[in-house]
């Protein structure tokens, strides 16, 4: 083979290698594009409000940009490049919920005003020096001092929770106006134009967010807490049968979903706190009044998480080696454990339903009494030594652990009922005609059923027994 032929073969081999590499790269790129498109489609199906939110942001940016494009002949005229601050404000301020958008808008508006005002005052003080040499030194000292002090204040927990964004914007506005004002000698004009454009952007974002398919943070928090309670209740209703009944067989798909739903409650603290913080900014809407007790939702959510941790420990026994314990051992604790689990499940699901409808539960006292009675029976059974003398110690430990966890769940369920009572009172939940609330000394609320044939003595006896 000649040199020319060898060169041609080499060129063909190089070209083929490059082609194969390019083809592989394109296939990989197409796979990523298709995968991203499928993920985006799935995301939109899970919550169509995300699509609506994206359209709202695009509409708000387009709307505020019209001021810059057409330059109308009114107060906005002459802003020039500063008009882009309105567009930037919409991009930064517009959030998914109304509370988040309003909170950011108020923070940004007030912080911009204060930052510009302080910068104007500092510039005026620097001008009193009467020297072109001392003026930048005075400005530098004020700039360093104020920026350092305000940055340190961002570490305060209460300030950081609701006003961290506003403090950050204050530092930014003060710094920009101070630096630009020193050269332009037009501090007031700069502060005025910047504040005006930012207010236009904040107003546009808020109007679009609240009047076009609004998403309320308070309603999101309300629904999330009620959903968490329902998930815990569903697990407890299924647990007794799945763990204690050896003849139950394979769990159905619905039961498997109920047994895994509680896991989302374990890591819900940060989401609940953020929603509660945003909800405090929102005006009255729907059934949620001004100064709605959002902190009470956090209290219920905290108790629900404590209960979820016990449920997580219970879940470990579903597929553990304790499933091999004999039928005799299971029979001894089957009835009280199933009673505790199912009754607590009924209580939590009824609380979830009552929270969704913002009404008082109807039959919750009966389930609480049954759960307390079953828990007492379970304690008595565990404390009876004659029941466990003939058993192996290794068999007693798992049973005692399950029983102890169920007893703890009863106490946390009662705490949730008491906390829900406070929420219902503060939020003025609707009371039904058939049942009237009766408050016990412990702080938890009880109910008496108003029936013509029921005497006052029987009602008093029922409430005393419940206490």
Automatic annotation (TrEMBL):
Positions of region (Disordered): 446-467
A Pfam family of this chain: ALMT
Domain of life: Eukaryota
InterPro entries named among the record's database cross-references: ALMT (IPR020966)
Membrane topology, as annotated: Multi-pass membrane protein
Subcellular localization, as worded in the UniProt entry: Membrane
Keyword flag Ion transport: yes
Keyword Ion transport: yes
Keywords from the UniProt entry: Ion channel, Ion transport, Membrane, Transmembrane, Transmembrane helix, Transport
TM segment ranges: 51-70, 82-103, 137-156, 163-183, 195-217
Family from the record: Belongs to the aromatic acid exporter (TC 2.A.85) family.
PANTHER family: ALUMINUM-ACTIVATED MALATE TRANSPORTER 10
Protein name: Aluminum-activated malate transporter
Organism whose genome encodes this protein: Datura stramonium (Jimsonweed)
Organism placement in taxonomy: Eukaryota, Viridiplantae, Streptophyta, Embryophyta, Tracheophyta
């Amino acid at each position: 083979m000649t040199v020319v032929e060898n060169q041609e073969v080499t060129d063909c081999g190089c070209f083929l290698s490059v082609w194969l590499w390019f083809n592989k790269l394109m296939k990989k790129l197409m796979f990523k594009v298709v995968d991203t498109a499928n993920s985006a489609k799935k995301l939109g199906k899970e919550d169509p409000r995300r699509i609506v939110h994206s359209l709202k942001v695009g509409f708000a940016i387009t709307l505020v940009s019209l001021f810059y494009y057409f330059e109308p002949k009114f107060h906005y005229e002459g802003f020039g490049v500063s008009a882009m601050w309105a567009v930037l404000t919409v991009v930064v301020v517009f959030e998914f919920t109304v509370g988040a958008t309003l909170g950011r808008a108020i923070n940004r508006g007030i912080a911009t005003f204060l930052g510009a005002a302080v910068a104007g005052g500092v510039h005026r003080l620097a001008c009193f020096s009467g020297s072109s040499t001392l003026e930048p030194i005075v400005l530098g000292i004020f700039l360093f001092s104020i920026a350092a002090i305000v940055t340190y204040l961002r570490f305060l927990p209460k300030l950081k929770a609701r006003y961290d964004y506003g403090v950050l914007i204050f530092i930014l506005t003060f710094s920009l106006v101070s630096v630009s004002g020193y050269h332009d000698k037009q501090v007031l004009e700069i502060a005025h134009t910047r504040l005006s454009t930012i207010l236009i952007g904040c107003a546009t974002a808020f109007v679009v967010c609240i009047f076009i398919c609004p998403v309320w943070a308070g309603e999101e928090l309300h629904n999330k807490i009620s959903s968490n309670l329902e998930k815990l209740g569903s697990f407890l209703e299924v647990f007794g049968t799945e763990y204690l009944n050896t003849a139950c067989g394979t769990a159905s798909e619905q039961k498997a979903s109920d047994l895994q739903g509680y896991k989302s409650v374990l890591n819900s603290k940060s989401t609940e706190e953020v929603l509660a913080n945003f909800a405090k900014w929102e005006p009255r809407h729907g059934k949620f009044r001004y100064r709605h007790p959002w902190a009470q939702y956090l209290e219920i959510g905290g108790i629900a998480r404590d209960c979820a941790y016990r449920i997580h420990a219970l879940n470990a026994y579903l597929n553990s080696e304790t499933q091999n314990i004999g039928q005799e051992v299971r029979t001894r604790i089957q009835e009280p454990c199933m009673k505790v689990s199912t009754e607590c499940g009924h209580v939590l699901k009824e609380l979830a339903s009552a929270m969704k409808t913002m009404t008082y539960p109807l039959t919750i006292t009966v389930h609480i009494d049954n759960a307390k009675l079953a828990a007492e029976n379970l304690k008595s059974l565990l404390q009876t030594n004659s029941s466990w003398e003939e058993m192996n110690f290794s068999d007693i430990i798992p049973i005692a652990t399950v029983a102890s966890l169920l007893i703890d769940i009863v106490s946390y369920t009662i705490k949730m009922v008491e906390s829900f009572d406070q929420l219902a009172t503060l939020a003025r939940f609707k009371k039904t005609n058939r049942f009237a609330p009766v408050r016990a000394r412990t702080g938890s609320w009880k109910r008496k059923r108003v029936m013509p044939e029921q005497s006052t003595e029987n009602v008093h006896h029922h409430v005393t027994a419940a206490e």
